[in-house]
Amino acid sequence: MHRSGIQLSIALLALFTTATASSQTPPKFSRSDLAAAEALLERAQSDSTAYRLAESLTTEVGPRFSGSPGDRAAVAWAQEQMRRLGFENIHTQEVDVPQWVRGEAEFAVLEPWPQPMPALALGGTVGTRDAGIEAEAVMVKDLAALAELPTGAVKDRIVFFNNPIERRRDWVEYSRAVSVRGAGPSAASALGAVGVVIRSLSTSAQRFPHTGGSRQPQDVPRIPAVAISNPDADALARQFASSQTVRLRIKSTARDLPKQRSANVIGEIPGTDLAHEIVILGAHLDSWDVGVGAVDNASGVGIVLTAAHLIRAQGLKPRRTLRVVLFANEENGSAGSRAYAAAQEQTLANHVLGIEADYGAGPVWQFSTRVHPADVGVIDQMYRVLRPLKMDRGTNEAPGGADLSPLVARGMPILGPELDGTYYLDVHHTANDTMSQVDPAAIRQSAATYAVGVWLGAQYPGKWQRLEPKAPRR
Amino acid sequence: MHRSGIQLSIALLALFTTATASSQTPPKFSRSDLAAAEALLERAQSDSTAYRLAESLTTEVGPRFSGSPGDRAAVAWAQEQMRRLGFENIHTQEVDVPQWVRGEAEFAVLEPWPQPMPALALGGTVGTRDAGIEAEAVMVKDLAALAELPTGAVKDRIVFFNNPIERRRDWVEYSRAVSVRGAGPSAASALGAVGVVIRSLSTSAQRFPHTGGSRQPQDVPRIPAVAISNPDADALARQFASSQTVRLRIKSTARDLPKQRSANVIGEIPGTDLAHEIVILGAHLDSWDVGVGAVDNASGVGIVLTAAHLIRAQGLKPRRTLRVVLFANEENGSAGSRAYAAAQEQTLANHVLGIEADYGAGPVWQFSTRVHPADVGVIDQMYRVLRPLKMDRGTNEAPGGADLSPLVARGMPILGPELDGTYYLDVHHTANDTMSQVDPAAIRQSAATYAVGVWLGAQYPGKWQRLEPKAPRR
Q1: A239–B437: do the CB atoms touch at under 8 Å?
Q2: How far does A431 lie from chain B, in Å, by closest CA?
Q3: Which residues does chain A have with pLDDT short of 70?
Q4: How far is the alpha carbon of A395 from chain B, nearest alpha carbon, in Å?
Q5: Which residue has the higher pLDDT, B322 or A470?
Q6: Lowest pLDDT segment from A386-390, B14-18, B345-349
Q7: The domain spanning residue A59 has which CATH number?
Q8: Sign of CA dihedral A328, A331, A332, A337
Q9: Helix/strand/coil for A286
Q10: Regarding predicted confidence, which is higher, A22 or B149?
Q11: Chain B within 8 Å of A118 (Cβ-Cβ)?
Q12: CB contact (8 A) between residue A58 and residue B431
């Protein structure tokens, strides 16, 4: 996943729009639907489909960055898996995606104590000239600290943003710090800097630089920007601590190539009496280029495919249609998300409930949602079924994911199970995002949670109330 | 450190040569020497010199692979630190070291499911032609499994050695498995293979390939050989598990360049009445090229320098001379170790006791030794002082390190504190060998152990008995 800095403020806004208390009593699930939910939970807890799907995607496709051959292979893989798992109405929605090519990044300290450090270019940044750039460096913590520097302080210099993040189970710290990655390069460029290096948005002491998207506004020159790992950021900070002039070198062959075709992959478990109402399960199919995208987001793909599949495999007939959408290009552009929302402009209101998986393999630690206050009681009923999976009840301020955010902005309520992110930011957007980081028990618990949530969401005897529309995330 | 497969058998041999029981009672340490040892222990437990030295070496020098500019910078750094820490008779012993250049390694699966995997060339291997090599691959566990294949089974193929190792506190498992890295390429070449890829000698689920030395005998063609990480070895094994033909590509620009000058760096805390007897503290100064050599072996450098320094800083006057030798080229040739032993040919008998630090930062979990059976009682006395540092008594079959092995082979007894290697093989010989992997409390405990051991070793009122000479390790 990626998250923009805007999201936090929107999440806070959501708190105000949805936190009005409700005293209505929503209709109750039927006994048979609840019994089916319990049987589904039982089955899901011994089912390894989600893990196997993630393993298959990472092994048989591997990296699948937007516009790459792996991206196209993933689209074929997804259709094949949907067929194998018994989905119907399988189809693709073609979408043009950016094709940014990382190339090679070299980063080195030149003075006072020369040494190279592994680095990754930030997504969307330009490369350097062939010889690279060499310049004196200025270390700052974050955007606020940059803004406080005297005029001219970073002109013709390289800015080093050294902003550590805390390990947390939730996504709050990442949302705070991501502004450096998103807006750091353009903010430094606006002040005349020639390059940027950031401390990775990482909670790991391992030497993996983290890539990720960075905004490239039209009104300032694009400048090269790379990320270094936490250990190297500490080492570089020690060079600054010597009070000697620090000179750095950045070389990057990052570049843009023409857009490529990719696709959202869509499949359904058709509903019965409420088939025109859609419960949408979203996960992005693309990955960054440097790992194999196991936690980000083969796990999410495995979770949503498995949730719908298990309902079908149990012989259940959902009242509402379950639609799985595996989105293109979440990581560096969200073209898939935008294209889906645009194409569904006339049918947005049919999307009565959503759920997205884009925060690793889990386990789910709290069953949050963002539903109309009148429907909070429905969630309480769901939670009673889910409680054996050992999770907290959660809040009604679920952060939600990026791909469904245009639908949420138009008023679609969501189930937002919060996956445990304690180690997520050790791994995501790095070369280290492999299946060795996916815990089979955790992903099984997550898939079980999604299956039960989606099943009951599809069976709800009342009407899912829509939220207040608000500005979309991007 | 590196260890050759030969070491295990020599360690077992040592067990037989030294395990004869002794009923002699060695002389006792004086009360004042024991009191000084306790005060030294107290001081060392709140001293951060070893950590600071490791931090300084990795920050101000960084990678220091034999023959590289960093290697020469490390020699200058070491002399400067010895001066600063109050050593005497500081000098270098020049030595010619190999200059092997890694270049770049590319590794990819071509069939059945193409994807690239990060790889590192094994030390001493040749590169490929510019286009790389592409060949069908054969997976085997180890050398024994390779030997059992039918004739011609690996001819013109790439051999994948997929031999996992267990996490252990001691060094036994590594010693078992290192034969694949050391002898795998030449064994495969002897059977007509064109390339080798090995599962890294690693206990980590992180995606770091491990480099390390590999033997290049004259009588078989040198072939390219690379290591991949554990997660990638698992992923590659899944491709084999598909029962489809696996084709691999290796490209490597590794090559030999002319030998370079390096040096052992030597400094002393001179003895008093027994100054002609030497207690030697050894650690290698060089590192592999891919990390900054924090656990392997800036930590060992920090430990031995600190042990001798603390004795001097306490105002203690050791009876025997403490000699710290920071060896060149341990990782890929041991030229420093051989040169030292050769130059001391006439004075080998003066080296009455040794201690080496080359297994990370610690803590010491057992106080092993390899001393004459008559002197085991001396070690019991030392151990009583060390016990507050929370370690076991250990054995008299300490593995010892590579650099002092020529002296041990000639009969020098050693103190062999065993440093906790539980996580050592996660890190050593990888890009991830940084200061973030060094625990300040662990290295402090190790330095305290070495300081007390060396102090009492220098004060021992008896005569250190020599061991039976045996064949040196290499």
Answers
A1: no
A2: 7
A3: 1-24, 471-474
A4: 34
A5: B322
A6: B14-18
A7: 3.40.630.10
A8: positive
A9: coil
A10: B149
A11: yes
A12: no
Task: Check if B231 contacts A (Cβ < 8 Å).
Answer: yes
A116 contact residues in B (CB cutoff 8 A): 62-63
Q: For residues B114 and B237, state if they share a domain.
A: yes
Strands B255-269 and B225-228: unpaired
Interchain pair B115, A230: CB under 8 A: no
What confidence category does residue B176 fall into, taking pLDDT thresholds of 50, 70 and 90? confident
Could you give the CA distance from residue A340 to residue B186 in angstroms, rounded to a whole number?
56
Question: Is residue B467, in this structure, part of any structural domain at all?
Answer: no
B 130-189 residues with CB below 8 A of A?
A: none
Confidence (pLDDT) at A474: 42
Looking at residue B24, what is its pLDDT? 61
Residue at a domain's end among A218, A253, A288: A253
How would DSSP label each residue in A385-403? HHGGG--B---S-----ST
Whether residue B151 is found in the same domain as residue B280: no
Q: Do residues B157 and B93 share a domain?
A: no
Are residue A416 and residue A272 in the same domain, yes or no?
yes
pLDDT in tens, A153-190: 999 999 999 999 999 999 888 888 899 999 999 999 99
Segment 34-73 of chain B within 8 Å of chain A by CB: 55, 58-63, 70
Confidence of residue B422 (pLDDT cuts 50, 70, 90): very high
Using a CB-CB cut-off of 8 Å, the residues of chain A touching B200 are none
Distance CA B226, CA B160 (A): 10
A215: Cα within 13 Å, side-chain hemisphere: 19
The predicted pLDDT at position A314 comes to: 98
Final residue belonging to a domain, choices A206, A230, A253: A253
In this complex, is the C-beta atom of B207 within 8 Å of any C-beta atom belonging to chain A? Answer: yes
CA distance A444 to chain B (A): 20
Residue A95 lies in a domain: yes
Question: Residue B472: inside a domain, yes or no?
Answer: no
Name the packing angle between helices B49-56 and B440-459 (round to 10°): 110
- For chain B, how many structural domains are there in total? 2
- B19 has pLDDT over 80: no
Residues A189 and A301 in one domain: no
Q: Which of B113, B118, B431 sits opposite A60 (nearest CB)?
A: B113
Which residues of chain A make contact with B59, given a CB cutoff of 8 A? 113, 235, 238-239
ipTM over 0.90: yes
Side chain identity at residue A447, one-letter code: A
Cα A461 to Cα A26, A28, A310, A312: the distances in Å are 9, 7, 21, 20
**CA separation for the pair B205, B208 (Å, rounded):** 8
Q: What is the per-residue pLDDT across B293-320, written as a single tens digit (0 to 9) for each?
A: 999 999 999 999 999 999 999 999 999 9
Give B-chain residues touching A62 at CB under 8 angstroms.
113-116
Question: Least CB-CB distance to A431: which of B70, B114, B207?
Answer: B207
A290 shares its domain with A395 = yes
Q: For residue A2, give the 3-state DSSP assignment.
A: coil
Residue B125 belongs to domain with CATH number: 3.50.30.30
The answer to whether the beta carbons of residues A420 and A363 sit under 8 Å apart is: yes
Comparing CA positions, the residue from A260, A286, A322 lying closest to residue A403 is: A286
Chain A hits for B115, CB-CB cut-off 8 Å, are 61-63, 70, 292
Q: For chains A and B, what is the number of CB pairs under 8 angstroms?
A: 83
- pTM equals 0.93
Q: Are residues B248 and B287 in the same domain?
A: no
Residue A221 CA to residue A161 CA, distance in Å, equals 19
**A361 CB near a chain B CB, below 8 Å?**
no
Interface mutation vs chain B, best among A51, A56, A59, most B CBs within 10 Å: A59
Shortest alpha-carbon distance between residue A266 and chain B (Å): 24
Domain assignment present for residue A323? The answer is: yes
**Domain shared by A94 and A110, yes or no:** no
pLDDT at residue number B177 = 87
Average pLDDT over residues B133-139: 98
Q: Which domain holds residue B189?
A: 106-253
Can you give the pLDDT at residue A470? 73
